[in-house]
């Protein structure tokens, strides 16, 4: 009896070990999808699957050939139908588990909306929920994904890196992911925003590898631009870069330094600052029928550029600089709020803040009419910026030491 039990246990153990091989996929049997593009042409959905070419990834390996990535395009009545049609022309099985980026064309975002995208990706167990989402401003997803750029030959890798680098002008170092946008749309009483990507020079595309031989890199690249504003799932408008900074301030999304440039007072010239260590919180104040959101912001600044004569060793001048920065941030926030009101989209989550503070009043008074109430809210930015340093030089180069 004891020997029989040992035999059964050994058999079970061996069976468990063998089960790990079921459903395996070898590297030479799959295509790794790095990004997906989604466009609209007439009444059809157009899907672009960009896959990695392993033999083209490194010039250090002998025998490598072809481009770094290849893009396969198909169309269908739905996203799933178009993806299935793409599978018919792929030489190998598509693997989505390493996908890092999804680009949506502006026309698709305006006409079809992004809700159906999330229905598809949420049902696909290979696609991770931290995929970066971008909207192609004034262009299609195909134009963005077809662009070979200097340094990074894989568009998905290039786009992910550019979001972080562009934080100096947008204030946002981490782009919006699939999971975050879904939470906004369906759980947080707010409308979503997504970073935009825009071709820098529409006249000359860089979809040929030979274009990379041109020393002028600006003719074959794109840039991360302001936020795309959505009413539920439909694109309604855009923020410029300063309004995007204002949005990032209110939502405590500023994690890296960003740049502010202001005119010098009383004479020609400019002052450039690097603003960092930003902390912010928002407090809703509900009094009678009036709602005010007090936005408290603190941070530090470093003088980076001075093109006019100014004695920065004078404490009063430092105070003037601090006030200039505070006024600039306040203007960015106010412009961001006004644009949101104009588009009738609560992209700040103000509705959720009211709900969390006064859940009963939210249900009884504001929930059904929040679109109308949102247009009447007031925002009060309270900003404190401290000059941390004037850099390694005190006087301007226009003055004698």
Automatic annotation (TrEMBL):
This protein's GO cellular component annotations are: membrane
Task: Tell me where it resides.
Answer: Membrane
Q: Keyword Membrane: yes or no?
A: yes
Keywords per UniProt: Germination, Lipoprotein, Membrane, Palmitate, Signal
For the Spore germination protein N-terminal domain, which residue ranges apply? 24-197
Q: Which domain of life is it from?
A: Bacteria
Q: Name one Pfam family in it.
A: Spore_GerAC_N
Q: Could you tell me the membrane topology recorded for this protein?
A: Lipid-anchor
Q: GO biological process: any one?
A: spore germination
Domain called Spore germination GerAC-like C-terminal: residue spans: 225-386
Q: Which family does it belong to?
A: Belongs to the GerABKC lipoprotein family.
Q: What is this protein called?
A: Ger(X)C family spore germination protein
Q: Which organism is it from?
A: Paenisporosarcina quisquiliarum
What taxonomic ancestry is recorded? Bacteria, Bacillati, Bacillota, Bacilli, Bacillales
